[in-house]
Design brief:
Helix content of chain A: 25-40%
Largest interface: A-B, 43 and 33 residues
Order of helices and strands of chain A: EEHEEHHEEHEEH
Largest sheet of chain A: 6 strands, antiparallel
Number of helices of chain A: 5
Strand order of the largest sheet of chain A: 1-7-8-4-3-5
Number of strands of chain A: 8
Oligomer: homodimer
Chain lengths: 155, 155
DNA sequence: TGGTATAACATGGGAAAACATGGGAATCAA
DNA sequence: TTGATTCCCATGTTTTCCCATGTTATACCA
């Protein structure tokens, strides 16, 4: 049994006429080994689908209930939004999930989708949108951490 | 179980037609003994591949997970960049990994590659590029710390 | 010390398994 | 019945696994 569970890498897969997409094999392995389930919801900040293990949302719920006055009201609202939107997405024997119309529309996904690892979460993007977004992020990160541009011998 | 795990030394290996490279035996030993896995990604600052143990990234993911900041925007950008690019690279029974096109291209590696230890991380370079880089680093060090020029007898 | 036996390693190639993806049949709901 | 969803089979491709070989490094013995 492995010690760590991280959603990683960037994988481009097709979405067929029925709205099915192959979940990257690495992601499936994580689901099987944890015994948890994939949960997806519309990202609050970007035109993409966000996904994670149900375990993580459970952890979030626990954090909220354990520190009510600790959290801001907005954090509370955001959490509500996520839970209101989230839904389980099991995959079939060939490893595919069927994404809902709502999710696909929000992410502007039609015939192909890019899975982007985020550690404990992942995102699903329209390929062109992700290309732009990645570029934006790279520029943003270099702006915030200009040391990387130069020598960046350490990080 | 050993106490310390350091990627060290500089090793030149061939990259075959399938994109396979032997991971230096010392590195393999570290992976086995830690029970972790090799993870590689494009260096943010240099034209080379960077690698480390999955444990290291897992630590990062845990920090974010526990930061009570499920919806932070800056965190979002950083995690996308790091985890979106990283990927596990398990090695087969003969000790080889299969580097992706993306990584090889970024590091301009074609038929041979140099592994350079960096402690908790390591880098994989195109041999010519590494030669130049090493020279650059040595000169840089002497410029910053001229005292080394006198004393620094090396083998 | 020198020389040889032994083990570890890097590397090539081919066989087997895993994967993404298309399509059809069975199942269910409105 | 119509439309949607689930399940299963088929296929081409990629990736993984395993065997074979030559080379290098290490251990051992005289």
């Amino acid at each position: 049994m492995r010690k760590t569970f991280l959603f990683m890498d960037t994988v481009l897969n097709k979405v067929d006429a029925k709205g099915r997409v192959s979940l990257p094999a690495d992601y499936r392995a994580i689901v099987k080994e944890t015994g948890s389930e994939i949960v997806c919801y519309r990202s609050l900040s970007s035109p993409c689908i966000e996904g994670c293990l149900e375990d993580l949302l459970d952890k979030l719920a626990t954090q909220m209930e354990d520190s009510l006055d600790f959290f801001s009201a907005t954090q509370d609202d955001l959490t509500n939004l996520v839970f209101g939107d989230a839904k389980r997405y099991p995959f079939d024997s060939t490893g595919r999930v069927m994404l809902s119309e709502k999710l696909l529309k929000h992410a502007q996904i039609t015939d192909s989708a890019v899975f982007v690892g985020k550690g404990r979460k992942f995102q699903i993007w329209n390929p062109e949108n992700w290309e732009k977004e990645e570029k934006r992020i790279r520029e943003q990160v270099l702006k915030v951490r200009p040391s990387l541009k130069e020598a960046g011998r350490e990080s």
